[in-house]
Inverse folding.
């Protein structure tokens, strides 16, 4: 069965079969990151005058819809942690001392990246593939949010045909307005069979002149207990780091 | 479409090296977990108070004797927090030191806000002993089920507060199905001559507990505090998202018989006690334009109605005038003692409306957040309006300017506070 699936996907990569967008999207998800993993990320916000603000996060994910991001830097945000369980998101701030519910459209950093970008779960968990089109060297997926809880109503995803990794994603509102463009680059071998873009650049017509860059480091497969992904454990999540 | 894709691919290809050229490769090794870490912030705050010379709480404070119309105050604060790790044990602490100076006094205050030793045998079980600020409840400005914590300042709900010395545990389970999480938190808050003296009467262990459930997509807490230093009480809260940008929450608490001193306009004092029911309903709504609205209706069952507050203010005014005219200080001392208790709480009334609107990235400036907050006593229609400006665009620096504008007639909640207006600016640097 595995062999068949592999052969089928290889065939897609050659662009010789009718496209099964859902399968491609699932493959993109797994190529981007293992279903359960830990990684470090740096978020850099670059303002029109060139000034920068940097964040470092430690992220863990389990299954299709459990994610935690813990802020390690800067000092003003250190210790903050966000938890996502499906459509539910919470933010824990050490000075506040309890998690509060947040929404996917807010931004815990205040930057161009919002919570949905920072606590991203599998695309295939949030979106249905409404269309798949084969282009020269690429595949274009038209994705529609499964529910109104999802941050972006529609995505256009350009996928590298040979690597089955996203290259560019445009995010649209329900009214069809382009709100953000995500550009993946710098494909890197993280080891353990994980080869994916190490850099994501984001800009938004809503924030002209601003740019945000996300870089990954130390991504590896990891498995954490379900109890780690709970409100009560959130204040102690940094103790999970080795 | 092919041409469009080629253009995009070209743009991405051009942008990618540019991003790489701008951003040095990120190396996470310098963020490894350390056995000891420390951080915190230093803050400088300047305040100007326009005093309310006709206000009852002005007359009953030290300001009353000063006869001042205004007061400038400078405050420096240093807050330190850290962790020490060894095996499955962690000791964490948070201290707060402040120095405040105004024309009437200079005060220094140093406190251990939190300092607790915790042992984590697994993600399912944690035991803690020490000083800890437990925060229970889902409300933003008010928390009826905050049974084991010091009162929150609704003017600054996110401010760190001093905890109590306690023993507590956390037992977490993920049973699966509709009940996705179950977490039980038992607590003991001993009150002796040496610790937790401001929690209530001495000589009690004060058991308390909270049961948290995540049922489908709804947070539910059941909370309880046994009869002891404080009256026994129990309650519940909930929070859930009705839509991606719309959260609702609520709290309800039933509090056993609690002393509630009452005084009438002539100064006749009636010691009484009362059982009460407190509750809160709130929402948080994010608009397409990135404005966050927070609204809460708070019923404070043990609070005073408009007539009771007016009686106290009348009595306080009379006692103050009598004292000034050499008529003795007995009545004034009684009024001052009452102002130290229930009458002098930040929100002594019975029903409040809290509304806050906060705009993210206002005027296209990332990290700039103006906000406007209204807190109104619904019985006497007095209110406080708080416009504020917040900018966090400079690394590790938080700049905030805030004005508190109080409105209300004689004998009303906000009309009888110490100040009519307060302007404050502060700079907070995190390290």
């Amino acid at each position: 069965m595995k062999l068949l699936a592999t052969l089928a996907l290889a065939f897609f990569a050659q662009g010789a079969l009718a496209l099964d967008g859902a399968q491609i999207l699932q493959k993109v998800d797994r190529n981007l990151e293992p279903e359960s993993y830990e990684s470090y990320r740096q978020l850099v916000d670059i303002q029109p005058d060139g000034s920068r603000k940097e964040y470092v996060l430690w992220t863990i994910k389990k299954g299709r819809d459990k994610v935690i991001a813990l802020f390690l830097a800067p000092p003003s945000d250190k210790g903050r942690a966000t938890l996502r369980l499906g459509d539910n998101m919470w933010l824990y701030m050490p000075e506040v001392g309890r998690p509060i519910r947040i929404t996917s459209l807010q931004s815990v950093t205040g930057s161009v990246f919002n919570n949905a970008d920072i606590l991203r779960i599998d695309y295939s968990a949030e979106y249905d593939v409404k269309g798949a089109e084969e282009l020269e060297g690429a595949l274009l997926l038209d994705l529609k949010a499964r529910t109104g809880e999802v941050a972006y109503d529609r995505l256009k995803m350009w996928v590298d045909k040979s690597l089955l990794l996203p290259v560019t994603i445009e995010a649209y509102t329900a009214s069809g307005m382009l709100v953000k463009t995500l550009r993946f680059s710098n494909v890197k071998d993280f080891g353990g069979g994980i080869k994916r873009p190490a850099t994501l650049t984001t800009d938004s017509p809503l924030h002209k002149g601003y740019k945000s860059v996300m870089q990954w480091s130390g991504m590896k497969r990891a498995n954490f207990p379900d109890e780690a992904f709970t409100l009560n454990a959130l204040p102690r999540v940094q103790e999970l780091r080795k | 479409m092919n041409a469009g894709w080629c253009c995009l691919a070209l743009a991405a290809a051009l942008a990618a090296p540019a991003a790489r050229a701008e951003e040095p490769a990120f190396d996470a090794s310098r963020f490894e977990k350390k056995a000891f870490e420390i951080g915190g912030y230093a803050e400088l705050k300047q305040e100007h108070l326009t005093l309310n010379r006709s206000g009852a709480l002005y007359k009953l404070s030290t300001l009353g004797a000063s006869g001042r119309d205004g007061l400038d105050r400078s405050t420096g604060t240093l807050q330190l927090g850290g962790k020490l790790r060894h095996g499955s044990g962690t000791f964490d602490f948070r201290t707060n030191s402040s120095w405040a100076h105004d024309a009437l006094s200079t005060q220094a205050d140093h406190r251990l806000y939190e300092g607790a030793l915790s042992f984590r045998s697994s993600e399912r079980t944690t035991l803690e002993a020490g000083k800890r600020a437990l925060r229970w409840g889902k409300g933003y400005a008010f928390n009826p089920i905050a049974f084991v914590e010091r009162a929150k300042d609704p003017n600054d709900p996110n401010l760190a507060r001093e905890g109590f010395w306690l023993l507590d545990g956390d037992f977490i389970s993920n049973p699966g199905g509709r009940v996705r999480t179950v977490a039980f938190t038992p607590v003991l808050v001993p009150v002796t001559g040496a610790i937790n003296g401001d929690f209530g009467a001495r000589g009690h262990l004060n058991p308390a507990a909270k049961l948290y459930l995540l049922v489908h997509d709804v947070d539910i807490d059941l909370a309880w505090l046994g009869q002891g230093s404080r009256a026994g009480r129990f309650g519940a809260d909930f929070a859930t998202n009705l839509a991606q940008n719309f959260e609702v929450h609520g709290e309800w608490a039933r509090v056993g018989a609690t002393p509630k001193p009452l005084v009438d306009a002539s100064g006749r004092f009636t010691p009484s006690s009362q059982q009460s029911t407190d509750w809160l309903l709130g929402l948080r709504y994010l608009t397409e334009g990135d404005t966050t609205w927070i609204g809460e209706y708070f019923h404070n069952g043990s609070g005073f109605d408009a007539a009771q507050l007016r009686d106290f203010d009348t009595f306080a005014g009379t006692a103050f005038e009598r004292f000034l005219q050499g008529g003795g200080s007995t009545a004034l001392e009684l009024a001052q003692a009452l102002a130290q208790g229930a009458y002098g709480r930040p929100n002594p009334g019975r029903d409040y409306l809290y509304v806050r609107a906060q705009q993210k990235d206002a005027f296209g400036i990332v990290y700039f957040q103006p906000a406007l907050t209204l807190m109104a006593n619904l019985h006497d229609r007095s209110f406080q309006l708080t416009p504020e400006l917040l900018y966090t665009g400079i690394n590790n620096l938080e700049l905030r300017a805030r004005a508190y504008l109080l409105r209300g007639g004689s004998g009303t909640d906000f009309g009888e506070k110490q100040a009519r207006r307060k302007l404050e600016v502060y700079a907070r640097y995190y390290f």
Remarks:
- The two ends of chain A are 37 Å apart (CA to CA).
- Helices of chain A lie at 2-13, 21-32, 115-118, 123-126.
- Chain A has one domain: 19-240.
- The CA atoms of residues 90 and 101 of chain A lie 4 Å apart.
